[in-house]
Predict the structure.
Amino acid sequence: MSQPSPSSSIRRDPAAVLGVDNIRNLPKVALHDHLDGGLRPATIIEHCAANGHVLPTTDPEELRRWFFESADSGSLVRYLETFEHTVAAMQSADQLARVAHEFVLDQAADGVIYAEARYAPEQHLRQGLELTDVVEAVGRGLVSGMAEAESLGMGIVAQQIVTSMRHGEPTIAIAELAVRYREEGVCGFDIAGAEDGFPPSRFQAAFDHLKRNNAYFTIHAGEAFGLPSIWEAVQLCGANRLGHGVRIVDDITVDAQGRRHLGDLAAYVRNLRIPLELCPSSNLQTGIAERIEEHPIGMLKDLGFRITVNCDNRLMSDTTMSREFAKLVDAFGWDAHDIEWVTLNAMKSAFLPFDERLALIQGIIKPAYAAFRAGVA
């Protein structure tokens, strides 16, 4: 049975006030953002020159366009190939720290007040760094970025999620890093990369290690592969969140009267409030739909799933959190209540202590949206 949208009975805000600029001034939460998917083109050019890595172009604007056009192919495999160049720009401790620092500043400038940066430490060892060196360098960059953002009046909390590449040999080494550094800004673990043919259960030992140590993890599932991937992530591995999870719609049917019916897995995910880290623009690039108006996020929101909105890879999708929300405003008629609801979903789902989440909700998010609505009333 179809459920009403959480804001369906609330007066709509005038659509004109919810353009990118005004959305940028509202607090937002980014849960699914790859550190190696959001570099500044100028940084890539400088770092790759130092590392002897050849790029398609050394003009920043041309490089920005190249990343978007190459990723905008409808294929996850092609999409992932663009990371060859960004990863090449992240091979020394100073480079990693700079990228993390700029990650924080760019998010803060977009009105993001909490962000989790995910990346695979194993991809940054070409110049002799150890896994611990990588995590510590990223940590330094996040801390310095938060300090500079605060000095500029843009308060933000940023943490890191360490990731294993799912096509590699299964190991618990990265999961061990997540546990070792959880008091030093590492908030969780993930597996990422090509999904088809590499089910989550390959890393069962890593997930078991995390659960034994009361650590948090999300799993890329239901992006380029369907329900079996989601089922394994939830039922075998015990994911706290689903990275993308958009193909949960494959377990939702619509009858001749237009009524929506949830299968057992979809109902389980919704009923347990398992967060979906949805990434609309990225999902279009990897083939989930041809137009934003066809993205399942509209239906999933109407059915009451705990959806969150994310960028995935800001460089490859040429996007920001504000742009993602602006697209959803245009496509589905979302208003400030809807953006607030999704933002609260994300904040409630963050790998952050409860009292800190509550402080951000009560001290920043709710007052800011209330003030915005009062200003357009």
